[in-house]
Amino acid sequence: MIILGLNTHHADSSAAIFIDGKLIAATEEERFTRIKHWAGFPEKAIRFCLEEANISLEEVNYITIGRDTGAKMDRKMLYLVKNVGKISSLLKDRLSNRKKITSMASYFSNKFHISESLIEKKLVNVEHHRAHLASAFFASPFKESAIISIDGSGDFTTTMIAYGKDNKIEVLDSIDFPVSLGFIYTAFTHYLGFPHYGDEYKVMGLAPYGEPKYVDKVMKIVKLKSNGLWTWDASYFEEIQVLYEKNQPIVPSFFSKKFTEVFGEARKKDEPLTQFHKDLAKSVQVFTERVIFHMLEHLQKRTGSKNICIAGGVAQNSVANGKIIENTPFENLYIPSAGHDAGISMGSALFHYHQNLKKPRVPSIKTASTGSSFTNGEIEDFLKSKNIPYKKMNDVALFDYISDKLMVPSVVGWFQGRAEFGPRALGNRSIIADPRNNQAKELLNLKIKRRESFRPFAPSILKEYVDEYFIHDDEVPFMEKVFPIRKEKHSLIPAVTHVDGTGRLQSVDKEVSPRYYALIDSFRKKTGIPILLNTSFNENEPIVNTPAEAYSCFERTKMDVLVMENIVLERN
C-alpha cells in the first residue's frame, strides 16, 4: 500500500510518502524553491518522495490532500450571509484556492504527464485539522491519547479536539473561523512590528525580556467557556485574510481601531523595541499559555487520558509546550517534528491509512531525518567542479578534529545525513558552536544569521544528561519544548541559556542520530559539557538542502569551518 500525502496550495507546502504505513520520505517544497513558507503545488517535493521510494506515480495507490473544501459548508455559508458586507476579498480568495484544490488532477497531468482520470481515482481529501490530529497521534507511541490541533485556520476550523485509540480518531469538538488563538498571536505579532508570515516565533523569543504586566488587558479579548472552549470579542479585529503572492503567503495586519485604542499605536518595523513592547510580548505569551491550559484541562477531564498529542501552528510554541505537563493533568506529551502545516502531508496520509482503510498502527516516528541526503562522492564532485580545496577524514578523526575546532572557538556548518522534516535543524543541517562561549550568540546573530539580537539559540544535549542540566527530565527529540536550565549550570553554558534561564533543548539519542551524538560526545569528553549550541543552517532563507547551498551560505557568512559528511572546508 503506497500513499503519497500532500499539503498543497497552502503555506509550507510539502509531500510525504508511506509504504505499508512506514514513512519513507517527507520534505517541504521550500527546500527546493528556496522561498520561505512556499505555498503552491509541491512538484519538487513530490518528485523527491517518488525517487526516494523508487516508484512511479502510477504505482501510488492513493494521493491524499490535507484539505477538504466541502468541510463545514453550512457554517461557511452562514458566516458569509452574516458578513455579506465585508467578505468580498475573502470570498474571492477562498474561491480561487478552492478551484486549485479541486483541479488537482490537472496539476498532476500537466507536471507529470499522466492522465487526469488515473489521478482522479487516487485522490482522497482529508480535512485540514483531521490531518493535523493524525500527524500527531498516529505518529506517536501512545495506544490511546487526547489530541488537539490549534492553528490560524484551515477548512473553516481553528481548533479541533479529539480522542484517539488504536487506529481511530474521534473528533469531539471544534472552534470555527475566525475565532483563532493563532490569529490573536499573529495580530500581536504584527502590532509589535514583525509583519512577515511566520514571525510569531520572534514574539516568543522577545517575551522573556519583559514582565506580564498586560495579561488582564489581553484576556479581555476572549471569553473562556465552561466546556473548555472559548470565543472572542470580534471588535478587536478587522477582516482576516491569507493572501498569496508568487506562492508566498501574506497576512495583512487585521487588528482594529479598537485594538490600538486599548493597546496604543502599533510599532513600526524599524522602530526601537521599548520595554512596553517586551512586556506586551510576555503578556501575550502568558495569555496564550492560559488559553491552551484551559482547553487541555477540560480535554483531559473529558477523555480521561494521561496522554496528549498536539499539532497545528500553535504547536510550534515551544515555550508553552514545555509547561504543559506541569500545568495540566496530562503526564505524557507528543508533538511531531512538523507540527505546523507542512505536517499536513504526513497527517493526511496517516489518516487515510489508519482511519479510512482501518490499517493497524505501525511503530512511532522517532526521527525527522526524512529529506535529501548526499554521498561523499557527490559532495566531492561538486567541490572539484568549483576548484574548491577540501580535506577528507574518517568519522573518528572528524569528530576529534571538529570538537577541537569548536573549542578554539569556531563556528561550524554541519551538513550530514538526511535533511530534517519540519522547521528545526536537529544536527543534520545545523550551524554549531561552543555553548560555553559568551560571544557565540552575538557572533551568530549579527555576522551569520543576520537576525534580531534577542533571539535565542538552542542546546543539543545528549539524552542521558538532560536531568543534569534541566529542571525537567524528558525526551525532546524535535526541539519542541523549552525547559528551565538548572541555575548552577547557567554560567557553564551561557550561549544557550536564554535571558530567563531557559533553553529550547533537543535531546540527542544515539540510536536516532549516531553521528551527531558522537560529535557531541567527543566534545563532552574534552570539556565535560555534553551540549553543543545548535541553530539552523541558513541565513534568512529556507534551511540549506544541498552541498551547493551549504557552501554558498558558508562563503557569504563568517563561518569558520564547513563539514559536509566526511568533507571539511576551512576559511583561509
Descriptive overview:
By secondary structure, this protein is an alpha/beta fold. The chain folds into three domains: 146 residues, Nucleotidyltransferase, domain 5, CATH 3.30.420; 198 residues, Nucleotidyltransferase, domain 5; 195 residues, Carbamoyltransferase, C-terminal domain (DHBP synthase), CATH 3.90.870. The protein is built from 21 helices and 23 strands. A nine-stranded mixed β-sheet has the order 15-23-22-16-17-21-18-20-19, sandwiched between helices. Strand 22 and strand 23 form a beta hairpin. Helix 5 crosses helix 6, helix 8 packs antiparallel against helix 12 and helix 17 crosses helix 20. The N and C termini lie far apart (52 Å).
Q: What topology emerges from the helices and strands here?
A:
Layout: E1 2-7, E2 14-19, E3 22-28, H1 30-33, H2 43-53, E4 62-65, H3 73-82, H4 88-102, H5 104-112, H6 116-122, E5 123-125, H7 128-137, E6 144-154, E7 157-165, E8 168-176, H8 181-191, H9 200-206, H10 215-219, E9 222-224, E10 230-232, E11 243-245, E12 248-250, H11 257-263, H12 275-303, E13 307-311, H13 318-321, H14 324-327, E14 332-334, H15 343-356, H16 376-385, E15 391-392, H17 395-407, E16 412-415, E17 429-433, H18 440-448, E18 458-462, H19 466-469, E19 481-484, E20 502-508, H20 514-527, E21 531-536, H21 547-556, E22 561-564, E23 567-570
Helix pairs in contact: 5-6, 7-15, 8-12, 17-20
